[in-house]
Amino acid sequence: MMTEKNESKGTILIIDDEKVILDLTSIVLRNRGYTVHTASDATSGMAVLEECRPQMVLLDYMMPMVDGLTALKQIRQRYPDTYVIIFTGKGNEELAVELMKAGASDYIVKPFNNQNLVERIENVLRIRDVELRNQELLQERELLLAEIEAWNQELERRVQQKSEALQQAQAEIVQSEKLASLGYLSAGMAHEIRNPLNSISLFAQLLKSTLDDPEKVGYVDKILKEADRIDDIMRKLLDASKRPRFQLSEVRLDRVIEATLEAFRPQISLHGIAVVKEFRRIPPPFQADPAEIEQIFTNLFLNSIHEMNDGGSLTVVLDQDERNMVIRIADTGPGIPREHVAKIFDPFFTTKTSGSGLGLAVVLRIVKTYDGRIDVEKSDESGTVFAIRLPLSGV
């Protein structure tokens, strides 16, 4: 084996068991500016090929041990960027078809003309350059298409995020307008309704004091009870739309949750509900009105218990991130119908046969008072999850 390494027009490996062919072809190609490597059989030729990775192999068709056709197939399979020209002592159409199918770029019949040999080599190398460049362009095209697809997906993701954020902002604006309208309405109603309601209660109590008939006393008691119910609805209406008097102090969320769950212990036991508490990270105390914070959990726990009359699981997760205290309340009830999820915080909206439909409106008003937010993270047949985020800074 002989090698020569310098700046050249290209690298060519000659594999032939005839030393005369090796020497003659090497001289011709070196004189034409090529770097030439030689091997006298296919096995040693494959070793040289692995080391020098030539652009072209001139391969003898008839060789001992590993013949040229077998070597050709191995070269094209393992080194697809290396093109092969076959030397053969006989030439016919059947052989040409077989060689081309196996991956040969050309074949030259021995003995050959030196000028013809060089021209055939240069022609194959030009074709090789064009085909490899086309492959590079196709790969670049695939990369560009992949990048464009990735950009499109990222753009779609961002548009989706912005659209969802816009929809959320619009929904919050609409909700705020509803609460504001409710505030104006409830303030007027409170004055217009409570005055005559107080008179009804007063005269009913006076009437009751003059009655001896137990049946009639019962009727008056029902009047007083309904008057109290109207007054309670008016109070809830005002709570949902306008912040009542409040008193700030340091509040510990974990303690409020514990106390509220304890208050619901009889109902929880009655309905066979399992309570799961996951206090992953307990946020620091923050300034708030304890009664308002307690009302958030009272209303949410009450709704969850109502949805699990036949038992279930109530899970309360308390955590925090860099900016917010995070509370998740999950139940295993039947879930909120999809068409109702967007309306559940609306005043007077309820799917229950009883109730004012103001509980979640009150929760929303309180959460917004503390610059927080409440969302329905999930609601399906496996249950509902409410997520509340309150800023760590408090109010």
TrEMBL record:
Pfam families: HATPase_c, HisKA, Response_reg. Gene3D superfamilies: 1.10.287.130, 3.40.50.2300, Histidine kinase-like ATPase, C-terminal domain. Residues 127-179 form a coiled coil. PROSITE patterns: HIS_KIN, RESPONSE_REGULATORY. The keyword Cytoplasm does not apply. Residues 11-125 form the Response regulatory domain. It is an enzyme of class 2 (transferase). GO terms for biological process: phosphorelay signal transduction system. GO terms for molecular function: histidine phosphotransfer kinase activity; phosphorelay sensor kinase activity. The modification 4-aspartylphosphate is found at D60. InterPro entries: CheY-like_superfamily, HATPase_C_sf, HATPase_dom, His_kinase_dom, HisK_dim/P_dom, HisK_dim/P_sf, Sig_transdc_His_kin-like_C, Sig_transdc_resp-reg_receiver. Keywords: Coiled coil, Kinase, Phosphoprotein, Transferase. One of its GO terms (cellular component) is plasma membrane. It catalyses: ATP + protein L-histidine = ADP + protein N-phospho-L-histidine. Residues 188-394 form the Histidine kinase domain. Its EC number is 2.7.13.3. PANTHER family: HYBRID SIGNAL TRANSDUCTION HISTIDINE KINASE C (PTHR43547:SF2), TWO-COMPONENT HISTIDINE KINASE (PTHR43547). This is histidine kinase. It comes from Geobacter sulfurreducens (strain ATCC 51573 / DSM 12127 / PCA).
